[in-house]
């Protein structure tokens, strides 16, 4: 997209933006504060650990920046990957947090000015506001000028800090520096959280990616190079500072505040470099804080600019000046925000909120990369690829959550409030003006569907034999027994599988026995009399011997005892039906063991409603669902007459191939039509419905029977599905292990079966595993 922005920033200027955004209050103010927090020299290790924890986000941002070299940085990646809502949160949060950090930097040099010129203290506010206006004008006039100024400031600062490290290393007291890398220090994680904001500028290079020369090479080199250089600079500088300054003594003497805040670097320079060193360090500190404000303004102004291009902010923010080739309004408003913050808001408190939100942004950046990679988007072709994927990103997310717990209650509340305000803004302004979702979510959803289609195609093409166990108890009603057997025979008719009907009789515990389960074969029980023809689920006349007969009289298909024993073979279908009685002390384990020993493909069980809300103990259904290695079908029987339409429902995600196989087998035997039912949110974008429709169309090509498709827009998934499922003759849906939350609140599949009036079959595929925490909490929620 041509925007009029010039690619003026080379490698050194781009690195200068990142270093200038990082090296400011982080190195000149925070060492003393972090020393107090960690209660010792381990503050050096805290800076090192923080740099390592930032690395995953830097690698992720580098990769995505080379694929999408557009202004906006982390906002662009989150918005493109996970949609406008999270993009709005990232954009607004970054915009304001960078403004807060810039404002803090402008007044953060107070201790250093007072150190050399106490009389200037009363003019600090005027000077800070004046600098804010000056930097705004510079950024409006030319991005290149801003980059050149940043390069000059950072150059001076690096020279002074290098002199400080080299010249002061010989004066480091081993006693004061002892324990600088002690992992066992109390408060180490809290100190790491405190200094984390020192590295917040590392991914700000991506915010001006559209103005970087040769972004495919320049951006990753600048981002990783600036992080490595800044981390080494932090570690070396802080090591020398705490090694030459008696911080406890300085606090006692009033040179530093009780929390460690103050001109600690000036005190260190006075102790090792003399008056010339003090002047140089104070000058570097002021330049560093000024560079932080300049880089913060430069980066912050690009967020409303990028958001406006995506329709998430008023279009005026994306207008580029014909005279200056810069987004004047975006820069001016950002500069005005900084001026207001400097003049009226306690910036030191607001800056702490920035640390918390930057951690959240880093987590989102790592997650966005996972979305792009797993989405396999055709247009996503980065020139730089993050190493150790996805472990690097997972480590960055996990460590981010750990550090986030240590930033303190007030910063967390601030981050929550900013997030809430962003959500309100999204629904009031953005949502009515946009109808799309993140491309990574769309592509990932499409790819998940394609993978499910391939698994379904392979399952239908296998043509393997399916043996079915119909497990009943003395509590199973006669009609339900017959309907369960009909389901089992229809399913096992695929490739002439067998059906075993086993009645499990529970007996009291018996001591001193060799075993608690016995099995015997039986003749067909009396409840099989007057059964309808197998494979039709329709009522039909009984034969003289108590079996069943085809209604047209063309063939004789009976359940009975053949000449060789109780195992019966149907004359036309060659389906062996074996009747068993199993005596056991515990029915659930007995069913699982029987199905495993007999190598059954499916177990058909009566759905036991009374077990659904059991908080303690484990009923028959739950035990079999949890432990069976084969597929499980729970039958909620409400009577079956003719079956002309079968509804196959899923409340979210893809259909389990075995659920489709069960529905297809019954439809094939009964001549019924299948209807694929699936819900999406009412406000889901059009591309999401298109992806689901494409998925349904592919499934209809695989199924062996006629199938229709219904995609329902409803925020109440159960109600939406029930409205259409009630019109069918049979519902096939999914079951799952319930757990504590399911016992308390119920599961969507159970709620759906409870509200419909038709017989339902709930299918759990063989080998179904409970998804892991990351899958359930993160990926499923974000990528749907």
UniProtKB/TrEMBL annotation:
Keywords recorded for this protein, A-Z: Membrane, Transmembrane, Transmembrane helix
Ranges for domain Amino acid permease/ SLC12A: 15-429
Segments traversing the membrane: 12-36, 42-59, 95-117, 123-142, 149-168, 188-209, 221-242, 262-289, 328-347, 353-372, 384-403, 409-430
Topology relative to the membrane: Multi-pass membrane protein
Subcellular location: Membrane
One cellular-component annotation, GO: membrane
Region described as Disordered: spans on this chain: 509-577
UniProt main location, coarse: membrane
Comp. bias regions, Basic and acidic residues: 518-529
A biological process term (GO) from this entry: transmembrane transport
InterPro entries given in the database record: AA-permease/SLC12A_dom (IPR004841), APC_superfamily (IPR050367)
Protein name per its UniProtKB record: Amino acid permease-associated protein
């Amino acid at each position: 997209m041509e925007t009029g922005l010039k690619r003026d920033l080379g490698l050194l200027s781009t690195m200068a933006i990142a270093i200038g955004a990082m090296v400011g209050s982080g190195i000149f103010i925070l060492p003393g504060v972090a020393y107090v927090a960690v209660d010792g020299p381990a503050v050096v290790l805290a800076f090192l650990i923080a740099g390592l924890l930032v690395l995953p986000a830097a690698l992720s941002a580098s990769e995505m920046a080379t694929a999408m070299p557009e202004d906006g940085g982390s906002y662009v990646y989150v918005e493109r990957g996970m949609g406008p809502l999270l993009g709005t949160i990232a954009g607004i949060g970054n915009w304001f947090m960078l403004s807060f950090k810039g404002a803090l930097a402008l007044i953060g040099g107070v201790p250093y000015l007072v150190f050399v010129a106490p009389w200037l203290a009363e003019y600090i506010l005027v000077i800070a506001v004046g600098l804010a206006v000056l930097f705004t004008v510079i950024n409006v006039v030319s991005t290149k000028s801003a980059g050149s100024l940043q390069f000059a400031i950072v150059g001076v600062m690096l020279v002074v800090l290098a002199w400080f490290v080299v010249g002061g290393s010989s004066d480091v007291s081993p006693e004061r520096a002892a324990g600088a890398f002690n992992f066992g220090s109390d408060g180490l994680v809290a100190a790491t959280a405190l200094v984390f904001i020192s590295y917040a500028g590392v991914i700000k290079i991506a915010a001006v990616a559209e103005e970087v020369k040769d972004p495919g090479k320049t951006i990753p080199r600048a981002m990783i190079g600036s992080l490595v250089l800044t981390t080494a600079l932090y570690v070396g500088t802080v090591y020398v500072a705490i090694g030459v300054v008696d911080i406890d003594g300085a606090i006692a003497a009033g040179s530093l505040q009780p929390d460690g805040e103050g001109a600690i670097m000036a005190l260190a320079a006075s102790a090792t470099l003399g008056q010339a060193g003090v002047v140089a360090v104070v000058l570097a500190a002021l330049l560093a804080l000024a560079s932080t404000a300049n880089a913060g303004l430069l980066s912050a102004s690009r967020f409303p600019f990028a958001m406006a291009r995506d329709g998430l902010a008023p279009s005026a923010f994306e207008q580029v000046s014909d005279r200056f080739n810069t987004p004047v309004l975006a820069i001016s408003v950002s500069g005005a925000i900084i001026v207001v913050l400097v003049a009226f808001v306690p910036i030191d408190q607001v800056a702490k909120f920035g640390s918390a939100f930057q951690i959240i942004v880093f987590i989102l950046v790592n997650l966005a990369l996972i979305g792009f990679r797993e989405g396999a988007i055709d247009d996503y072709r980065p020139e730089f690829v993050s190493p150790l994927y996805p472990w690097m990103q997972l480590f960055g997310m996990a460590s981010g959550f750990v550090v986030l717990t240590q930033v303190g209650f007030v910063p967390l509340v601030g981050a929550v409030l900013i997030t809430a305000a962003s959500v309100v803004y999204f629904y009031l302004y953005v949502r009515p003006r946009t109808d799309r979702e993140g491309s990574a979510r769309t592509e990932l959803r499409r790819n998940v569907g394609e993978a499910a289609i391939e698994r379904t195609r392979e399952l239908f093409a296998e043509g393997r034999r399916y043996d079915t166990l119909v497990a009943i108890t003395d509590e199973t009603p006669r009609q339900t027994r017959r309907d369960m057997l009909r389901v089992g025979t229809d399913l096992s008719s695929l490739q002439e599988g067998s059906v075993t009907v086993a009645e499990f009789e529970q007996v009291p515990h018996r001591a001193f026995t060799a075993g608690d389960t016995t099995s015997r074969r039986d003749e067909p029980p009396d409840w099989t009399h007057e059964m309808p023809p197998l494979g039709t689920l329709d009522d039909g006349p009984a034969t003289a011997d108590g079996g069943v007969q085809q209604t047209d009289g063309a063939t004789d298909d009976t359940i009975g005892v053949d000449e060789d024993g109780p195992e019966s073979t149907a004359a036309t279908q060659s389906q062996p039906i074996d009747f068993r009685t199993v005596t056991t002390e515990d029915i659930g384990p007995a069913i699982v063991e029987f199905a495993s020993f007999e190598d059954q493909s499916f177990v058909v069980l009566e759905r036991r409603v009374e077990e659904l809300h059991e908080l303690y103990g484990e009923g028959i259904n739950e035990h079999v669902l949890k432990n069976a290695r084969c597929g499980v079908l729970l039958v909620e029987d409400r009577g079956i007459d003719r079956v002309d339409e079968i509804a196959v429902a899923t409340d979210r995600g893809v259909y389990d191939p075995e659920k489709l196989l069960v529905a297809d087998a019954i439809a094939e035997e009964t001549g019924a039509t299948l209807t694929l039912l699936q819900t999406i949110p009412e406000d889901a974008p059009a591309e999401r419905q298109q992806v689901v429709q494409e998925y349904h169309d592919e499934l209809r090509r695989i199924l062996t029977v006629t199938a229709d498709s219904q995609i329902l827009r409803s925020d109440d998934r159960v109600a939406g599905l029930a409205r259409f499922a009630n019109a069918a003759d049979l519902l096939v849906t999914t079951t799952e292990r319930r757990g504590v939350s399911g016992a308390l609140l119920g599961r969507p599949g159970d709620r759906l079966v409870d509200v419909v009036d038709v017989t339902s079959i709930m299918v759990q595929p063989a080998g179904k595993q409970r998804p892991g925490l990351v899958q359930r909490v993160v990926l499923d929620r974000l990528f749907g």
